[in-house]
Amino acid sequence: MKTLVVMDSSKRGLKTSDLELLGYLEEKGFEVSALALGEEPENFKKDSLPLNLKSFFFHEDLSFYNPLAYVEVLKKQLQQTQYSLILSTASCKTQDFFPYAAATLKAPYINQIKNLSVEKDGSLKIIKSLYSGKLLGHFQIKKSPSFLLVQNNQLRGAWKTGGEPIALDLVLPKNPIQHLKFKRPEKQVQDLSEANIIVSGGRGLEKPENFKLLEDLAKKLGGEVGASRAVTDAGWQPYSRQVGQTGKTVSPTLYIACGISGAIQHLAGMQGSKVVVVINKDPEAPFFKKCSYGLVGDLFVLLPKILKSLE
Amino acid sequence: MNIVVLIKQVPDTGMNLKISEKTLEESSLKWVLSPYDEFALEEALKLKPLLNGKVFAISLGPDRVKESLLSALALGADEAFHLLASSPLQDPLTVASILKNKIQDLPSVSLILCGKLAADQNDFAVPQMLAQLLAWPFVTNINHLKYESSGFEITRECDGGVEEVLKAQSPLILSADKGLNQPRYPSLPGIMKAKKKPFHLVDIEETEERVQLLSLSPLPKKEEPKILSGDPDEQVKELLCLLKEKEKIL
Ligand SMILES: Cc1cc2nc3c(=O)[nH]c(=O)nc-3n(C[C@H](O)[C@H](O)[C@H](O)COP(=O)(O)OP(=O)(O)OC[C@H]3O[C@@H](n4cnc5c(N)ncnc54)[C@H](O)[C@@H]3O)c2cc1C
Ligand SMILES: Nc1ncnc2c1ncn2[C@@H]1O[C@H](COP(=O)(O)O)[C@@H](O)[C@H]1O
Question: For A221, which of A246, B50, B185, B215 is 20 to 30 Å away at the CA?
Answer without folding.
Answer: A246
